[in-house]
Design brief:
Strand content: 25-35%
Radius of gyration: 47 Å
Oligomer: single chain
Order of helices and strands: HHHEEEEEEEEEE
Helix content: 10-25%
Structural class: alpha+beta
CATH architecture of the largest domain: Sandwich
CATH superfamily of the largest domain: Galactose-binding domain-like
Number of domains: 2
Number of strands: 10
Largest sheet: 6 strands, antiparallel
CATH topology of the largest domain: Jelly Rolls
Length: 238
């Protein structure tokens, strides 16, 4: 029962009881003065036996107060049960919401090598636009994975890689596949011997146009076991 309704009912019951609900009943139990004949002269005065206390009858005020108490207890119990109804059962573990999926990468901006899965050996150095982070010392067999590259409805026809060749006699390639290490091969970025350049962007055409969301996997192949390149990013183009 709502608290407001309890208050209203208690108010009605109190109004029915009147301004002085106990006045009549207090008069009912007031003792009447005892009267007795005076004893003859010279005889000791005998004390009259005490009259038993009158019992208080069940009164309207008692009924009113009892009803008010019952209403208050009922409202408190109902509120407690209502509060428990919306909570978990005793001993139950709290439930957690399903975590939101990771945001997809935009392959038309840049897939940063240091953000990829398997990107060990992250390095940094000052650049023209601030600190440049990259995956350094990539050798034959090194791989990187971007699990959620979303091309949407746009069509990619080309990809480029910003890399730095580490040796003057390096020969190799970066294979780009969709879906994982054994997925569809869509591009091969050549790694050629160092010719006095530092960082450079190497563009190649895709084997076929690419749309939709894919896992983009990069694998390095080289003809030597020593590290052959540092990789900053790869970017797809329309």
């Amino acid at each position: 029962m709502p608290l407001l309704e309890v208050r209203q009912r208690v108010h009605d019951l109190a109004r029915q009881a009147g301004a002085h609900p106990f006045a009549d009943h207090l008069r009912d139990v007031e003792p009447e003065p005892a009267t007795s004949a005076a004893p003859p002269s010279g005889q000791p005065t005998a004390q009259a036996p005490a009259a038993p206390a009158a019992k208080r009858p069940t009164t309207r005020a008692a009924v009113v107060l009892g009803a008010a108490a019952l209403l208050a207890v009922g409202a408190a119990t109902g509120g407690y049960l209502l509060g428990r109804a919306g909570g978990p059962a005793p001993g139950a573990s709290p439930t957690r919401g399903t975590p939101a999926p990771a945001a997809a990468d935009d392959p038309f901006r840049a897939l940063e090598a240091e953000h990829a899965s398997g990107g060990d050996g992250v390095g940094s150095e000052p650049g023209a636009d601030g600190v440049v982070q990259f995956v350094g010392g990539m050798a034959d067999g090194t791989s990187l994975t971007f699990p959620a590259a979303d091309f949407g409805s746009a069509t990619a026809t080309e990809v480029s890689a910003r890399l730095r060749v580490l040796t003057s006699d390096a020969h190799g390639k970066i294979e780009i596949r969709l879906g994982g290490p054994s997925g569809e091969l869509v591009a091969k970025v050549p790694v050629t011997p160092k010719g006095g350049e530092d960082w450079k962007e190497v563009p190649v055409e895709l084997v076929r146009p690419v749309t939709g969301q894919h896992t983009v996997h990069l694998s390095v192949f080289a003809d030597e076991s020593a590290p052959v390149l540092d990789l900053d990013w790869v970017r797809f183009h329309r």
